[in-house]
C-alpha cells in the first residue's frame, strides 16, 4: 500500500472513492496552515451514507476525509481548503478550528444504550453484538458507558493518514472534537486511541528537547569487606577516601559500565558488583 498526496488530494486508486465532492467548504487555508488534525466519529450507519450526507448543501457540514470500517477512504474536500467539521470550538488561544485544521471523520455509531438482552443499541435503533462494543469512560464524563468499537483496519488507516498528513503539511497538533467543543461533542470518544495516536506520531518531536531521564537514586549497601571508592568509573581513577566498610549504606547517583557513583558523607565511584539492595 503506497498512499501519497499530490495537489492536495490523496492518491491510491485501490483505496479511495472519488464519488463524493462536498460543496460545504470555504476558501483556502492561510499561509502556514493547516497545522492541526481534528478527529471525529460520524455517528452514522455507514461511511458511504455519511459521505453522501456531508456532500448535501443542506447539511452545511463536511470533512476532508471519511474513513470506513474496512479502511476505505472518502476524500470530500482538497486539503488546502477549509472544510466545515469543527463548528464552535476553541483550543489553546484559538477559536473556530476549521480555519486551522484538517477534519477526519471515522465511521462509527458513537455512544450506545445497553438493551439488557446482550445487544447494544445505536441512537438510530440498530442492535450491535457485544463484539462491536467498547466499554469505557469518556474523558469528559464521570461514569463508564458503552461505545461503538472502531475496527482494526480503520484505526490502522487513520494512523497511516495522520502520519502522511503530518509529513506533508508539517502538522504539529492532533485533537479530538470532544476536546475543542467539550460541552457539545463526545467524538471520537474513549473507543478511539487518541492519546496513543498523539504519542506515537507527535511524541518524538514534542520530547526532543527533554533531557535523557536520570536513573532513579536508591539506597544500597556495601557488600564487600573493603570497597575502594574512586574519582571515576574505573580502577585507573584514584581513590577519594579510605575504602568503604561492609554494611555501609550509600545512595546511588549515576551508573556507567558496571560502576555506580554513590554518596554517603563523600561522593565517589565504586565497582557495582560489590553493592546490594537493603534487606
Ligand atoms: Zn465531530
UniProtKB/TrEMBL annotation:
**Biological process according to GO:** cell wall organization; peptidoglycan catabolic process; peptidoglycan turnover
Q: Which GO terms describe its molecular function?
A: N-acetylmuramoyl-L-alanine amidase activity
Q: Which Pfam families match?
A: Amidase_2, SH3_3
The source's superkingdom equals Bacteria
Q: What is its EC number?
A: 3.5.1.28
Q: What class of enzyme is it?
A: hydrolase
Q: Which reaction does it catalyse?
A: Hydrolyzes the link between N-acetylmuramoyl residues and L-amino acid residues in certain cell-wall glycopeptides
Q: Which Gene3D superfamilies match?
A: Peptidoglycan recognition protein-like, SH3 Domains
| Keyword Coiled coil in record | no
Recite the UniProt keywords alphabetically.
Answer: Cell wall biogenesis/degradation, Hydrolase
**InterPro entries reported for this sequence:** Amidase/PGRP_sf, Amidase_domain, NAMLAA_amidase_2, SH3-like_bac-type
Residues annotated as domain SH3b: 217-279
What protein name applies here?
A: N-acetylmuramoyl-L-alanine amidase
